[in-house]
Design brief:
The chain is an alpha/beta fold. Among the domains are: about 80 residues, Orthogonal Bundle (Arc Repressor Mutant, subunit A), CATH 1.10.10; about 110 residues, D-Maltodextrin-Binding Protein, domain 2, CATH 3.40.190.290. About 45% of the residues lie in helices and about 20% in strands. Strands 3, 4, 5, 6, 10, 11 and 13 form a 7-stranded mixed β-sheet that branches. Strands 1-2 form a two-stranded antiparallel ribbon. A two-stranded parallel ribbon has the order 7-12. α9 links the parallel β8 and β9. α6 crosses α12.
Amino acid sequence: MTGVRRHWPDLASLRLLLLVAEHGSIGRAAADMGLTQASASRRLDTLERELGVPLLVRGATGSRLTPQGRGVAGWAAKAVASATELLEGVAALRAGRTAKVRVAASMTVAEYLMPGWLAALRAAGADAEVDLRVVNSDDVAALLRDSAVDVGFIEALDVPRDLSSTRVGTDRLVVVAAPGHRWAHRHHPVEAAELAATPLVMREPGSGTRTTLEQALGRATGRGPAEPSLELSSNAAVKVVVAGGGAPAVLSVLAVAGEIADGRLREVAVRGVDLRRPLTAVWQGRTRMSAPAERLVRIAAVPEGC
């Protein structure tokens, strides 16, 4: 390959360049890698000389990538991700174990969708050990930022901007009440303003269900839901309280389909508020997922029944 340099750049220096792009500061990037700022600056100077293109514009308020530097950073991200995958794969071989995929899923996804996805992953021949954490949507994002999991699944209208994401499906929230509740016998839908003003049995703050309801009512009425009648940390607990004659609740249709079908709960029609929400796979920005994690995301994106 005539004209192509045969000397490979140092991977640690490429990672340092990516951190400068992320933080806008050589000092902060150096701290992330346990280097002094002077050492980091020398590494970047060497990288510029080796590649033969200017990578950074240094200023009193920070550092930014040149147009050439942004191009190099795009290629560097792929190289660093591939090297990381190589090292993880070799480590797995040394340990004599199969690949492991660490997954975090919000409660609704974990309870009603993840079992089928994992069965399909196994049926597809993926020899991977799955470590599943069931947390609320806010905690999924926190685990990804801490590199504690490889991929997460959330149900929320807004995805944190620092995470990479892809939509894998759509869910719908529904209002449910006990058969004896006055809302179960209405002849007209509950309006968005009435829903917002009514104390409900609700999931805990940070859950995708709670956040979706707050955002949807905020967009429809300019206000969030009223103070909860009761706040619980699981779909199952909310359903028990509602079916026992408590206040109505708003839950995923996935969570209440069985109870609606057998008459333990009644779906209440609503008007003026859109309670649909996307189901989204998320992972760390600039990080390439492992092969088992990518396969799980592809399985999640396949419509049910296909």
